[in-house]
Amino acid sequence: MAHDGVLSNRFTRRTLLKRTGLVGASLAGATGFGATLVGCGSSNSGGSSGVKTITLAISGTNAVTKKNWNATFAEFNKANPKIKIQGLFVNANGWVDFFSALQTQLAGGTAVDAIYIPTEGMQLFAKRGLINPLDDYVAKDKAYIDALYQDINQSMLKGFKAHSNPDGKTYYVPYAYNTTCIAYNKKTFASRKVDPPPPDWTWDDFKTVCQSVSNKAKRQYGFLISADVWGGFEPWLTTNGAKLLNDSWTKSAIKSSETVEAFTYCRGLVADGLAPAPSTTANGLQLLASGSVAMVLVGAIAESTLAQYGMHTSDLQIVPWPKKKQQGASIGVGSIAMLQSSKEKDAVWTFIKYVTAPEQQKAGRGGTITDGQLPIRDSASKSPELLKQMPDGAEYFWKMLPYAQFVPGTANATAMEGAMIQTWSDMLTGSISPNAAAKQMESQIKKNI
Amino acid sequence: MTLSKTRAARARQTPLRGKVKPGLSTRLAGLVPYLFISPAYLLFTVFILLPLLATVAISFLNWPLLGTPHATGLKNYVDLVHDSVALKALRNTFLFTILTAAAHLIIALALAMGVRASRSRIVQYFVRTAFVAPFLMSGGVVALMWGGLMNHDFGPIAYYLEKLGFNPPDFLNSKVWVIPSLVVVDLWQTIGITFIFMLVGLQSIPAVLYEAARVDGASAWNRFVHVTLPMLSPTALFAIVISFIGAFQTFTWMEILTNGGPGNSSLSMVQYVYRSAFQNFQLGYGSTIGVMTLVVLLLFTLVQFGISRWWVHYERM
Amino acid sequence: MRHPGRLTGQIVLNVVLVLGGIAMVLPILYTVITSLEPASQQFKLPPQWIPRHLTLQSYRLIFRMIPFTQEILNSVLITVVVVVGSTIVAVLAAYAFARLHFRGSRPLFLIMLVALMVPTQISAIPEFLIMKHLHLINTRPALIIPALIQVFAIFLLRQHFRTIPRDLEDAARIDGAGHRLIIRHVILPLSWPAITAVSIVTGQFIWNDFFWPKLFLTSQSKMVAPLALVSFSDANGGGALGPVFAGVSVMLVPILIGFVFLQRRLTEGVGFAGVSR
User: Fold this and answer.
1) Which of C38, C223, C243 is facing A91, going by the closest CB pair?
2) How do A221-223 and A293-298 pair as beta strands?
3) What is the 3 state secondary structure string of C188-225?
4) Which of the residues A115, B126, C5, C35 has the least number of beta carbons within 10 Å of its own beta carbon?
5) In this predicted structure, what is the pLDDT of residue B24?
6) B309: Cβ contacts below 8 Å, ≥ 6 apart
7) Regarding beta strands A114-118 and A52-59, do their DSSP bridges make them parallel or antiparallel, or are they unpaired?
8) For residue A151, which phi and psi values (nearest 5 degrees)?
9) Average pLDDT score over residue span A348-359
10) Per-residue pLDDT at B23
11) What's the pLDDT band for A153 if we cut at 50, 70, 90?
12) How confident is the model at residue B25 (pLDDT cuts 50, 70, 90)?
């Protein structure tokens, strides 16, 4: 979910994490990081004044990420003077790297109380006994949790409950989500005389658009295919009625004619010069800005991120993924997880409740919007104030929820995704056939499930 | 740091104290060399030797990063034998290392001879600067730069090759080209140092030898084969060993530029150790791969030195 | 030289050499030029070797988005401490191995040499466990302390010290000089090129390292610059490459300037190391 749904591939990280931007350039200011340098280190709970300090590990280290989180911590501290939160901002290349850096730190004895964790890592951490189940807290604050759950898209909530809580316990309370959509550069479309596509466009429409904007000799392409699962091939499977895993995530469901059809279609885009070959070194927004590609995958994205590339939210339009058999998208959910080893679990719970509260959600606290996610509450993610911080069409992030499939986050998701991404790239460049790729992926899933 | 300083300080004072009491001095003097090497040896033991031995020990364990270790006997080794990825990593590492070492040797030698032969000081200075400067850059940064340059669709290299009428492969996405491409990146960064070795090696060959060869009527080629090569061979061996060591540890290029792909075609041994231990969280298996690397490397080094006896000319020792 | 064939040969040779040099420099040039272009112009094909608009936008971004100054300082600090510390350790050990007779000197030296061949990364796991026990994970000393032992430096310095004539040392000894004085007044003055070379190679090695920082460092206040740029390029919004290239250029400039001054020394020292086996 979230920034990059992708575990080990750089591409996604590149394409998606960009949301790192600031909520607004105004927020960023030139002084972004000074204060946050202090913010790292192990937690020393207790303390003479009775103030408890908890450490929250977060992926990402740029000024915007830190500024937003630190502002959230400061607000929280105002409301709860007895609890101080320190961010452990982890330098990591994408989720896989974040998970391994974090486990390495835990193994090395760094005290961490809570982690910001996406769907990809939920079972990974829970099944290793690192996460403290929240059942007692949920029972204690039943009214609050019930109200929260009511304010969440029900199909997403159902999927979340099924996939993030492997053994019937509640390990995670949802905090943010991210859906895959496509963004196009309006200027590129206009200059090449392409009409804006309708929201219910099809694979065929998509290909036609690609054909009319592509010019191989000029190195201009229609769409950048991500080398990852969440934003790479999962949406193509979903829109063709195919799936990676069965509903209970116990078996592979990838070997189907629909999968092969989706793969064949994507390989065709590359073979016909409508999409560049997958690359660990291409940067989607960069290419979008220069007109080298007309469309890229996006999750939530804010002005500050686009500013890095000399773009504005007004330059982009967000549209749903084109459909074949049905509408579709992939989705990931983020959560603040409480570590088993934390000595300040109550304080962590207080924070979990704080960031999932309606006012905080609406204010886009923490990593929402700027770090690529939308607040989990409908009341927040559908609010006009929030939507207008993003390009037009941002409402599709929630409109697509009923059709979305979860990105796989099984206990061995990192190993599984790594292998599958490799196969995906090999298939796109033509070194293996779509059929063989589906077979290979099936065995990779079997091996790691 | 502090440790080594105090020890060093002590070591320095000992002999002076010794002067005062001659009786003690001989016995103390015998200890002095050990004091001198003790900081180095202490660090060496703690941070190189013991970890190596421990790696061997851990390779017999099943040890999840955040769990408790259990002895598993030879299981890791049995797994390793059936692990096609390990084999691939070994192959990649060797291919990379051999290509790198060979290219270093040939290009650096040719370059050094060229610079020696050039009579333009400006050209000499420019070439030395241009070739050595990348050596002082940081690998991670070099990788980022080359990632942009080598991108198939948007990088300038493929663009210009195409303009010249070639049909360039997707360098970093091709199973065939990925290793040679990484070799190019590696060469770009490190060729300078080998070049300097060779240059100074050439400079130190006594001119008399060439004069004598010329008097005997030896052709340029014969002078190269019978004077330059033998006289340069120790330098060459040194340079090969250095580039070999560097190349065998390669990690940065694969980690940043290709992520080991496509299809593990550029996964290196060190990278595989790192992944097994810190991404798949299997300390035991990671160590087993490390041990295999060690064994292969030692064998290879023995062979290398065995061969070098035959071609390296040690007259000047 | 005098006859025309030679002259043509010289011209061809120099042209080839200069072209080779230019090929080496182009990637750096491309990087610097890109970092100075406005975001909308970056990475266009064909590349604009003479950009029409120049801007420091990318530089502002990289310094704003990550604590780059701090990270460069970390890199410099770690490199300097390791270079100084490891050279002291190496000089002492090399002096003993080269000039003093003691039991076990040969096997002790050989053991070190064998270890020189082994990439230390393969023992990353125990190394990590050691650092864990020393409570040094995610600290700069985790990068500094193990690097204080540079077997390669000991090896090179030993080779060099052996070439210093014994007479000088004997003369000093007759004058009553101990090891300290001998090192200071005999060995060191004759070894600056070698020591410079060793320092440069060690410094490059540390500055260049990517593996150990990746293993040991996560928090940003301790981060080293190259790793920070790599993380930025990946994690931060796919980090626009423009700011990354600005960061690369920033790291490059002091090096290039230093290099203009250091070139002689580097050539002498390193080259010398190469021939003295």
Assistant:
1) C223
2) parallel
3) HHHHHHHHHHHHHHHHHHHHHCCHHHHHHCCEHHHCCH
4) C5
5) 60
6) none
7) parallel
8) -95, 15
9) 93
10) 57
11) very high
12) low
Burial state string for A113-149 with b = 16 or more CB within 10 A and e = fewer than 16: bbbbbbbbbbbbbbebebbbbbeebbeebeeebeebb
Its pTM stands at 0.81
In this structure, what token pair is assigned to residue A183? 């963004």
Distance CA B133, CA C257 (A): 10
**DSSP-derived 3-state class of residue C259:** helix
Tens digits of residue pLDDT in B74-91: 888 998 889 888 999 999
Give the list of residues 6+ apart from residue A314 with CB closer than 8 angstroms, or none. A186, A391, A392
Cα diameter, chain B: 84
- Rounded to whole angstroms, the Cα distance separating A203 from A240 reads 10
Could A414 and B279 be called an inter-chain contact, meaning their C-beta atoms sit closer than 8 Å?
Answer: yes
Q: What is the 3-state secondary structure (H, E, C) of A365-433?
A: CCCECCCCEEECCHHHHCCHHHHCCCCECCCHHHHCHHHEEECCCCCCHHHHHHHHHHHHHHHHCCCCC
pLDDT band at residue B27 using 50, 70 and 90 as cut-offs? low
CA atoms of C263 and B135, how far apart (whole Å): 12
> How many CA atoms does the CB half-sphere of C106 hold within 13 Å?
0
Asked if A223 has any chain C CB less than 8 Å from its own CB, the reply is no
- Burial string for A68-88 (b: 16+ CB within 10 Å, else e) reads bbbebbebbeeebeebbbbbb
What amino acid is encoded at A82 in this protein?
Answer: K
Q: What is the pLDDT of residue A36?
A: 30
B64 secondary structure, DSSP code:
B
ipTM of the complex, rounded to two decimals: 0.83
Task: List, as ranges, residues 46-65 from C with C-beta within 8 Å of B.
Answer: 46-47
Cβ within 8 Å, pair B153-A278: no
Contacts of A259 (CB under 8 A, 6+ apart): A237, A240, A242, A438
pLDDT in tens, C95-118: 999 888 888 888 898 888 877 777
Instruction: Pull the structure tokens for residue A68.
Output: 């937003």
pLDDT computed for residue C5 by the predictor = 64
Amino acid making up residue C157 = L
Q: How far is A100 from chain B (nearest CA, A)?
A: 5
- The Cβ of residue A43 has, within 10 Å, a number of other Cβ atoms equal to 23
Residue A116: its H or E element: strand A114-118
Residue A35 structure tokens: 């204060």
Pairwise CB contact (< 8 Å): C64 & A30? yes
